[in-house]
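Forwarding these from the shared drive since the link keeps breaking.
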Amino acid sequence: MTAVNKVAIAGSGVAALAAAIQLAKAGVEVDVFEAKPELSALGSGITLQGNALRVFDRLGVWEAVRDAGYPFEGLNLRAPGPGAPIVAELPDVKTGGPDYPAGMGMYRPDLARILVDRAEEVGVRIHWASKVTGLSDDGQAVEVLVDGESAGRFDLLIGADGLNSTVRGLIGIDTAPRPTGMGIWRSSVSRPADVTRSELYYGGPVYIAGYTPTGEDSMYAFLVEKAEDRFGVDDAEANRIMIAESQAYQGPWEAIRRDLEAGARVNYTWFTSHLVDAPWNRGRAVIIGDAAHSCPPTIAQGAAQALEDALVLTELLTERDHLDQALWDEFHARRLPRAKAVVDASVQLGQWQIDGDRDADAAGLIFGIAHRMAEPA
């Protein structure tokens, strides 16, 4: 027995597809509704901590993820200026346990394709160009409206539809992401042979300059700056800004700038944060992942926390016989404190950068959270 037999999921990100895969593996009928017309082939890189890799193993995609990405151990800190000297080589906590690397970089569209393929393999129905626009919960089932028309009655609607979640609003939750004061430029570029782990530069004209390898021949580079209205700039101007802001950084940044000069694609977003207090559900609808919480990627736990939301929720749904208050109480007890710890720490790290607080114990905070994440969700 499972607590649900038929589930609708809004969204197609990591939380949505992880939940879909786990439910379908247990024999639950799953429909995923995604507003985008198709799976995007464009995107930037993503850094995945070990506890995210542990979830991928549970989903049955770890080998595919490992082969598509770039596993690594540790983190280098470099100084700006001539030669970009390495000032510290930090070990990573293996948050996924000894069977997985401490961290991994990969291209986001590659991860999305792996998860979509796995979901379809286990029987998930994915509906593209299909936006959840309404719901009606009578206590026994939830009717889901897609593009204004009924898509049927389901035992549960999971809103995993991202930062600007429609489902969050539909169930009456008004908590929403707030800018933290930082913006980030990202670009996918070629990987110099000497880049074998994430490297960060502190100091200089931006808060953080860094890059993470995503494959044998690729990595993504990023610059974290004070948030500005950059959203109207064209591609050429975006490249020009990223080249100009990176001039203080040498070492592998020399190669990165050559790729930017050749027209490497650049995107810009603001860091946000929010955390919905319990409960994340209203009756037979629940939000998870970025719909429920977001934070700056200062400790690279965003994807891991979204995956853990999905894993814990589906574990309860497939091991219990009833969708009752006891199930929701356990879900919130297991997820809210952990998500809150990550959001708070991530925001604090960013604020220390904004404030220029050189006495802050950033390493202590990072390693403290990492040790906590090493305990399974």
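-- next protein --
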Amino acid sequence: MSTYLYRVNAFSQELTSGNPAYVIQLTSPIQEKDMQRIAKELNLPITAFLLEQQCNIYELRWFTPSEEIKLCGHGTLAAAHILWEEGVIEVQHPITFTTKSGHLKVEKVKQGIQLAFSTDAPIPIDITPTLQQLVSVPILKAAQNSDRYIIEIADEESLKGLVPNLDLLSTLPVTGLVVTSPSTKYDFVTGSAHCGLAPYWSQRLNKKQLYAFQSSERGGELFIDYQDDLTYITGKAITIYKSRFNELLL
């Protein structure tokens, strides 16, 4: 049985938009150091490794070029997309992924591929001088969840041109920064971390169903259904190419 490599754009159906990821469907386990070596060589934001455990249940691990991460929405969406598109699993059957963040259930719905994640609700924090120094535009509101600051700014144009102070961020007791803003076309725009942004914008807009845009050079669209402890994120994906992996390297 061959090992295949898939290049996928998640949260998009366009060639040059969405979140890019590689998906590798393994036929047998490989060592963690080899997964990291492959991800570094492929050099996309995420390489997702799939290994079947039992019927409709797969181990899923995500690697950046430099490290393994515990949770990745677009890597999960890309992996599920491949399993259904390749006919490995029939589309009417949900998929369960076993990950370092626990079990993730994925289903095919009318709007695309729906991911169910535990909500990571933020709490409001003061806008301190240090926090303001993280971004080059005025902060309207600020919050913090388990590992990130969430900063709201005035509008989408300000967000697109924003340059964060990453040197300062590296000295603070969080692992990331999320900048978000309201939008005229969408409910909100942002870069990532929708499990924290769903409760934030649900409260701000007094609605449970949200339509979001990932404001980056490539962009991406997704639907969010916030149900308190669970946040459902739905998007589409497209396969850019499929190739056979050189198994001598595994």
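Residues 38 and 65 are 8 Å apart (CA to CA). The chain is about 20% helix and 40% strand.

- D.
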